[in-house]
User: Fold this.
Amino acid sequence: MRTLLPFLKPYRISAAVALSLMLVELVVELCFPLLMAKLIDGAILRQDVGAALKWGGVMIGLALFGFAAGLVNSFYAADVAQGFAHDMRRALFGKLQSMAFSDFRAFSPSSLMTRLTGDINQIQNSVFLGLRVFVRAPLLIAGSMIMALTVDARLALYLVVVTPILVVVLGYTIRKGFRLFRLVQERLDKLNGLVRENLIGMRLIRAYVRGDHEKNRFAETNGDYMRRSTAALRLSEMTVPGLLLLMNASVLLILWFGSRSVTAYETEVGDVVAVLNYAIRITGAYAYLSMIITSLTIARAALSRSAEVLAAGSNEFGANGTAADGIPPDRADVLFEGVAFGYPDSEAAVLDGITFSVNDGETAVIMGATGAGKTSLLQLLPRLYEARRGTVRVGGTDIRDIELSVLRRQIGYVAQESTLFAGTIRDNLLWGREDASMEEVVEAAKLAQIHETIMQLPDAYEAVLEQKGANLSGGQRQRLSIARALLRKPKLLLLDDCTSALDARTESLLLAGLKTCGCTTLLVTQKAQAARWADTVLLLADGKLLAQGKHGELLARSETYRFIVESEREEAAHHA
Ligand code: TTP
Ligand code: MG
Assistant:
């Protein structure tokens, strides 16, 4: 509820209108059996046509009034529910953008997908139902009970007796259902995750002829989802027949004792009919209630999942991200001092005792076997993750003291797997810096050695990319990502193995180009060939800095480095 209320607040007037109209509907409904009693006792039994017309007219008028109120109510209820869901989706999406990256990684993408779409829809439906009928059902039950008691207390007693039993049953269903439906939603996350994985990996699945295997995997998850849903639904649907049985029993009791007291001239026929009518309405309300409760329980489980996302801290790294005046240092030398790092979800140290420096405008090449921690090291600079120990300085300032957005605006980061967005090539490049001119775009593309390739495309810079740049080659995607980073005119350029798909000639052209851009560059690469361009080479092994120095120095000093360089040379000779 605490999650829900702030989102409903902007719609409180519409919600209030909807609820008051619902009350109007309720009053109309509660008056009906009374009017019916009047019609029977005062008009029909006395064969008074005038009175019959009068009461009949009142009933028709009231019915139309109630109908109009219901119509306007659903109009407002839909308004509230849609607006509320829209705002909630926006808030969740906003949270995705603002929560710490490590928190973001703690949710699975498919779970977030479900939370932002399916879950919100469930909540939206329940808000609508809530304003339409959910509040009305209990009121209708209570109101009918009171009205029936005033009409004939003795007969209505049979209705009152069963109430505690029904309340207990419904309460149990709600509690148990909540747990069951959370499990259902988790299974749905899993199902979505599997579909997502298959959609992304379809190329590989086809090439490996793993379609049947994937189908089996899907069938298992799908079956699991079905079983969980069935169990959850069965629980809530089982209560309906039970409720109806109890209510029908009390209806029969009313009929039985009612007819006896009518024959004994103790009660009027109209009163018996009225009490019966209330009983039937209560029965209907209970049946409805237990059905809505199913939807409400699902929504409650969905809401608790949304709340989890919303509860994630909004400031990346909390308060210490804004300590500084936010002035960007005008030099971008990088200094690591005794840095240790590990991922939040594990104890293991990924980096340990890392100390090195890169002067302003110089290039450091980071080498090391796969899994050595190269990507992890680069990710510390834009503070995607926090170092566990030690300090990272840029321009002499501890990066924890630089405002996060200021720090990141100075960084051009090219991730190991290039990410492009649906849109034109120009859009994708401008994504790096929106206010760049077309000349700057072309300049960056030239520097990244992709300009000529772009010019060969039918629409050149206006060529449309598919999602994730699927209609480009791996190397083209890499170079576009580099151009996008260069367009930012960053002080600090971080390139994570993004020349891996480039041929040697293009790579050396690119590296020569990068030299001219004047930014401090950290380049992760597997090729010793690239290390010749570097002012410093950092050799990582198992999260530790094995050696550092110039290419020539390392050749003389480090056996591992010599081995890497020599094996690469042999390979080259072999191919030549
Ligand atoms: P990386 O830093 O990704 O290693 P790398 O970049 O040197 O390797 P490659 O050349 O293949 O790109 O990983 C170091 C360790 O950290 C490795 O054991 C995997 C682990 N790791 C995580 O646990 N979570 C993560 O998000 C990443 C990126 C790595
Ligand atoms: Mg890596």
